[in-house]
Amino acid sequence: MKVAVVGATGLVGSVMLKLLEERNFPVSELIPVASSKSVGKSIGFKGSDVKIVSAEEAVTQKPAIALFSAGGSTSLELAPKFATAGIYVIDNSSAWRMHTDIKLIVPEINGNTLTPKDYIIANPNCSTIQMVMVLAPLHSKYKIKRIVVSTYQSVTGTGVKAVNQMENERRGISGEMAYKYPIDKNCIPQIDVFLDNLYTKEEMKMVNETRKILNDQTINITSTCVRIPVVGGHSESVNIEFERSFTLPEINKTLTSTKGVIIQDNPFDAIYPMPLNSHNKDEVFVGRVRLDESQPNTINMWIVADNLRKGAATNAIQIAEHLLQNNIINVR
What is d(CA 227, CA 230) in angstroms, rounded to the nearest whole number? Predict the structure, then answer.
């Protein structure tokens, strides 16, 4: 089938191209889309050079699927044009996530809700995806009452400009700044802009998206999101209070049997998830699982995943695979 990648030259877009190859997605023709400054240039795919085109040209070529990773304003403008042309849009920005008529999908959790009418499908925030992958099976068994999460997020979540800033600082080179402050040897307790409630947009994304994906508006959630000078993945310290009682062996058994989740939890041998080891992997890793001794029915855990893969590109392509496997999409 014809597949368009909108934002093909960006960090997430480049990973999408890589994963389309790795996962042998049935691409008969790739249609890479980027900004006007890149139109006419070429990008590599499956050993060939493919010409980058404009979004308008991509629509006329009638791809079956368009994978979007080009920012919220671009998605708000272009996604409806693709959808109106009968092209399924899987969007990685925050533009459509909280629209009541747009589904927010992690395939392992709620992929079964998709129908042929869902021409725009939202891909959740990277930090939300890795957390709900672990929490969804636990919620179905023990019902989550409250979540307290603090994130430690890779500079790759900001983009190439942030990676370059960190590398320049490590080399002692002056350059363009993605952040207001140095990021190397530092951590910045701000991701996205601050809102009137003094939380950042990133923090509220985790609150609102988690409730939507788990289909439960009663869950109490509070979040603090921090940018740290690492690449390879995001890390999260998560405290979860359940309504029902449980044992740690029951929690571990549930997580062990959850597809896409890998337990790395042997603290006495210093075995636990780290972004260094999650890099270029599609699974979500969980460790440091332990009882919260301050109150009942509560546990702490540490969750890590590659934010460019399962946190973005992999999840988007898994949605596309779900559309194909369930005959939702019309191949052309």
Answer: 9
DSSP label at 311? I
The size of the chain, in residues, is 332
DSSP state letters, 36-58 = TTTTT-EEEETTEEEE-B-HHHH
Give the Cα separation of 30 and 14 in Å (integer).
13
Catalytic annotation on 225? Answer: no
CA-nearest of 324, 327, 320 to 67 is: 320
Reported as a single tens digit per residue, the pLDDT across 66-118 is: 999 998 999 999 999 999 999 999 999 999 999 999 999 999 999 999 999 99
Strand, coil or helix: 95: coil
How far is Cα 283 from Cα 269, in angstroms, rounded to an integer?
A: 22
What's the pLDDT tens digit per position in 83-94? Answer: 999 999 999 999
Annotated catalytic residue: which of 139, 234, 279, 322? 234
Residue closest to 133 by CA, chosen among 248, 23, 213, 245: 213
User: Catalytic residue among 99, 126, 187, 279, which?
Assistant: 126
Tell me how far apart the alpha carbons of residues 312 and 320 are, in angstroms, rounded to a whole number: 13
Structural domains in the chain? Answer: 2-124+312-325 (3.40.50.720), 127-306 (3.30.360.10)
Determine whether 234 is an active site residue: yes
Q: Which of the 8 DSSP states describes residue 125?
A: P
